[in-house]
Design a protein that fits this description.
2 copies of one chain form a homodimer. By secondary structure, the first copy, chain A, is α/β, with parallel strands linked by helices. Helices cover 29% and strands 25% of the residues of chain A. At the A-B interface, helix 4 and helix 8 of A face helix 4 and helix 8 of B.
């Protein structure tokens, strides 16, 4: 489960910590099994009968955990079967589109932030870091249970799209001045390279978080957060 | 240099990567020495004579670097002598105040974001993670060279303060509705525990990033970014 190839092969991923596990139990995800520390079993909620339960001690938990300090509870959860986005479902709302985000922590933070602001879906290029990476799952703090993540060939996805395509570029219109309208996609790029050349061509509304100081760039999870905040501000 | 106690003892910290090092050379920081990979010496700019230069190979660089993939250049920089904030210098602007932020990556991202938006100073409680931690320095991407970081006893600092004290709490006024005025402090708390009870008492304007979804909280670097964005939006 620690490595992408085994997650793919078995269609399973890890969720650690009782709070996050409870979020997954109350979601559309299917839980395969839960490993729990005997001493903390009182924290375990009533569970559906089809979940396998394993009492383990701290040493055993340490061996299957990806964390330096295991949190007493670890679930093995089924990765949902690949589903393709229904373009119509994106109407009347704003959706983040990630083009090649690589850092699992950034990815997790983006999912958590999207969840806070009520964004239901995130669309990712095929080379974006996997949402089921243990570091991503951890950084979402349970929000992965609620935000749907779609991996798409962005070029074909954008070719079929009818909505306005906003893209975070350095020379776009200020996000504070932009007329956002009521719907659209907002594309954010890779940490170092930004949005890829092929995808930049599909942007019809380049937008920029205005710079008032001297930093060369913003962290992509920070940019995503500022976009989410601004979008809910103008829409509400 | 990798450990806080040695950084404190020697008054020195590490900066890695040529881009960041150049930012420090062009700042008020004093550079003690630079270690550089022989093969990349052409990237080295003209340097003041008082900087010690050491040609090293990749293996030697790997031994002094804190990074898994050393970047060819490593500088040892003097930690500025403790200076106390001049309260008057905070007038007519907004300043972030961090109460117990613990994660070096979050701290670095906050410094980088503040720099993007033109915030010149950050005030930290004494238990906030050290700005000269290698992970923090790395995450600032050179912005530490421009943003001044002050460590203060927050209680006494706030007792002497005359500016409005905004604080990020869960039950404050929406940041989108708040009358920010032209100046003030904006307090953000620890990743898990938020703002400490003692400091909450000093807040006279509790403010909240409105939640439209279900996540329990936001990452502190994300919150800081949304505050910075909103503050520059209303001020400009």
């Amino acid at each position: 489960m620690h490595q992408k190839k085994y997650r793919k092969e078995h269609g399973l991923f890890l969720v650690e910590g009782i709070k996050s596990i409870i979020e997954f139990i109350h979601s559309s995800y299917q839980i395969h099994s839960i490993f729990y520390n005997i001493e903390q079993s009182n924290l375990l909620p009533k569970l559906p009968a089809n979940i396998n339960l394993f009492e383990v001690n701290n040493v055993e938990l340490g061996k299957i955990s990806t964390l330096q300090t295991p949190q007493g509870f670890l679930a093995i959860v089924y990765i949902p079967k690949d589903k393709k986005i229904d373009q119509k479902s994106l109407q009347n709302e704003f959706t983040l589109v990630l083009d090649g985000v690589q850092d699992p922590g950034n990815m997790g933070t983006i999912i958590r932030t999207a969840d806070w602001f009520g964004f239901k879906k995130i669309i990712c290029s095929e080379d974006t870091v996997e949402a089921f990476n243990p570091k991503t799952v951890q950084a979402t703090m349970g929000s992965l249970a609620r935000v749907e993540i779609y991996y798409e060939n962005l070029t074909s996805f954008l070719d079929q799209n009818q909505l306005p395509v906003f893209g975070a570029l350095l020379d776009g219109e200020s996000i504070y001045q932009t007329n956002w309208g009521k719907e659209g996609l907002v594309i954010l790029g890779n940490e170092g390279k930004g949005i890829s050349a092929e995808i930049i061509k599909k942007i019809n509304k380049p937008v920029t978080i205005p710079r008032f100081g001297a930093a060369e760039s913003l962290n992509v999870a920070v940019s995503a957060a500022i976009f989410c905040s601004e979008l809910v501000r103008v829409k509400n």
